[in-house]
Design goal:
The chain is α+β, with helices and mostly antiparallel strands. The protein has three helices and eleven strands; from the N terminus they run αβαββαββββββββ. The strands form two sheets. A seven-stranded antiparallel β-sheet has the order 1-9-6-11-4-3-2, covered by helices on one side.
Length: 208
């Protein structure tokens, strides 16, 4: 990687870590270059065409259930060891974020799990928290959007509830290259229904 590009990636990771330390949430535009986002989008579309995605559900293990009225996305879990080059670049950037957040917040983030997510037109995901019931290992949620030329009319907005009483919200368009990172146990959030196909790479940094 070119030294200037590496420095930029490190700077963006540090910027995100500082925002999370200050408010619990960071929104970073152009977290990866346009060509990297385009490669990720192409890879996601290829995998979708090969029917590699599966309908998502709620819960884990024996508690896993499909609830299409709550969650309408399709997902594909990523295995880092076998991930193609486009995904490897994103995973490397996420690792830089993990290191920066650990330096800034001392969270003890240890590993990372992630999946590609696809929302078909009309699909959304109702208000929820990402930390699983009886399992607090997920500490930091990260989402990198892969969508080209996204407009407000396309829907698919990420709505983050900043207060427990839902009085204040932050609404983020899923524009390609935008990274959103927030403390998993602190912020409820939802994905509003979209009017066109919507892709993201979403994951969670976990502690032991």
């Amino acid at each position: 990687m070119h030294p200037r590009a590496q420095c930029s990636a490190e700077s963006l990771a540090e910027q995100a870590a500082a925002a999370i330390a200050s408010s619990g949430i960071a929104v970073i535009e152009q977290f990866l270059p346009d060509d990297a986002i385009a490669a990720l989008r192409t890879e996601a579309q290829r995998l979708r065409a090969e029917e590699a995605f599966r309908q998502a559900g709620i819960g884990a293990g024996g508690d896993f259930r499909r609830h299409d009225d709550i969650r309408g996305d399709e997902i594909l879990w990523i295995e880092p060891e076998s991930a193609p080059a486009a995904l490897q670049q994103a995973l490397a950037a996420f690792e830089g974020l993990r290191l920066a957040v650990n330096r800034e917040l001392q969270l003890g983030l240890f590993d990372f799990e992630c999946h590609l997510a696809r929302y078909a037109p009309g699909a959304g995901y109702k208000r929820h928290y990402d930390q699983l019931r009886d399992d607090n290992r997920r500490q930091l949620t990260v989402t990198l959007y892969l969508n080209e030329h996204w407009q407000a009319a396309d829907g698919g907005t990420l709505r983050v509830f900043l207060d427990h009483d839902e009085a204040r919200t932050l609404e983020i368009l899923p524009t390609g290259g935008t990274l959103v990172a927030f403390l998993s146990e602190r912020f409820a959030h939802e994905v509003l229904p979209c009017t066109r196909e919507r892709f993201s790479l979403t994951g969670w940094f976990r502690r032991r």
